[in-house]
Specification:
The chain is mostly helical. The protein has one domain: Sodium/glucose cotransporter, CATH 1.20.1730. The chain is built from 24 helices and no strands. It starts with a helix and ends in an 8-residue tail after the last helix. The mean pLDDT is about 85.
Length: about 600
Amino acid sequence: MELHALDLSLIALYLCTVVIFGFVARRRAGVSLESYFLGSRKVPWYLLGVSNASSMFDIAGTMWLVSVVFIYGAKGAWLPWLWPTYNQVFLMVYLSQWVRRSGALTGGDWMNTRFKNPIGLEMSRLVVVVFALMSVVSFSAYAFKGLAGFASIFLPSAIEPTTYAFILIGVSLAYATLGGIRSVIFTDLIQFSLLIAISIVIGYYAMTFTSAEAIREVTPQGWSSVWFDRKLDLDWSGLLPQLNDIIALQGYELFFPFFMMMMLKGVLVSVAGPAPNFDMQRLLATRNPREAALMSSVVSLALFPRWILVTGIVVLGLVFYSTDLRLQDPAFDYELVLPHVISEFVPIGLKGLIIVGFLAAFMSTFDSTINAGAAYLVNDVYKRYLRPNETESSYVKLCYLASFLVVAIGVALSVFMESINDIMGWIVGGLWGGYAAPNILKWHWWRLNGVGYFCGMLGGILSSFILPELFPQFSFIQLFPAIFVVSLGGAIGGSLASGHEDMDTLASFYKKVRPWGHWGPVIEYLRKTDDTIEANRDWPRHIFNILVGIVWHFMLVLIPLFLVIKEYKQMWIGIAVFMVCCAILKRTWLDRLEHD
């Protein structure tokens, strides 16, 4: 893509700004590990929420969303549930508070609140640190691959894409390492501001220069409807017939069975709670459990502008470039619709602003990842096992080396990965599939011990490697039930084969976190000294709020989508449903936060 000097100047200005802020934030970040990784738990919840949402937004994901909405229309709004995006609803309703009550620094540190047996505790800490580092290294590999792909499309060809990737990763590493989480949050706020700006501009272009009739002329019947039957029933024949082949290749023709598998995976992964990455880090950085819950609600609200951007690019691509796309090779990658529209439609200056926004999005995901990864290496490995009595400032300085090490391993790993889809498919479908079972049990079953947690996590990690090799004909989401069952069997078997945790430890955990589930023996133990202790019976209200919250969350996707494609009747229905959900959640969730 050819860029004007003004566009290049905006990119250079952004890169210089974030590095300078890293130097400015260095002094405050260097006070302690808590200051470096959690901002001394003094950052307002709404800034943490925006930062968390920004870290989940990247150019590769946006290109994928554009291709999904382009091909599947409003039905494409269901497909992000693969991640699942609605896990923030589970966090918002109750899990954020449970996590924050621990007062831990990292996911590994959290294990001290749940397990006490020395062998089991060390095993559980070790396996969660290994999982976290595997996840962080994989995300680093994903970032390097993604940045190289980004550069090959958006940046001038005078420099090799991999060279661009090294430069951009170097800049991210510099400011994230120097300033800790404060630098990360500052950059995320810039990115979110840019996201809002470019979303408004692209949405304005799409709504001004297209009409509802023009959109209907270039889309098949049912494209603007969110509903589906057992089959997808989208026929692109006569418009863009190659899209029928893509739908068949992706396996979404039988949409209802795929949707049910997606929901099963999504609910189980969501109940497990946040993975030990930047999502959990943001929760632990909040001031108190109530603000942790509020922070998670902001993440869902922050989806709104992204869907204006995605749908605007889809509409411009359909209306103005369908004829060109019809002439493309059948193997044309429809994820390239986004750069095609930006290259052909967006004027000088604004083009640079959009590229800076996407670049910031990529870097915000990357910087959050390496900041979280360094926490595990320094706090859970070096400080715990090697040098437990060093000064806080020396630990912070070691974070610089730890961040570099995580990135270096990730970049080296990317050489062996064929594509970013391979990396993300394994992380989301395979690795997180093995994470779900033991982490569901740690909240809801008193008998889980450190040995069982270790066996469940190890079984999940190993099966996420082995099963795809044994059954290459199945996708990661199809293998998810098998990975989950292996992990669940390991967690239950390991726990029952060894003694339960110390009752004083379990009692302390229950009084602090107040989870619901099978905690009967622990409650009986507590009643020996305090007969006022009652079991947590909030689960019916929590489940109700989750159901309402998922609908609320989904409306934040559909409302901007229907707005841009000018389906105003469906948009107003979505707004009405959203307002009803807000009223319900106000009474059954928000007003109860102080009590909870």
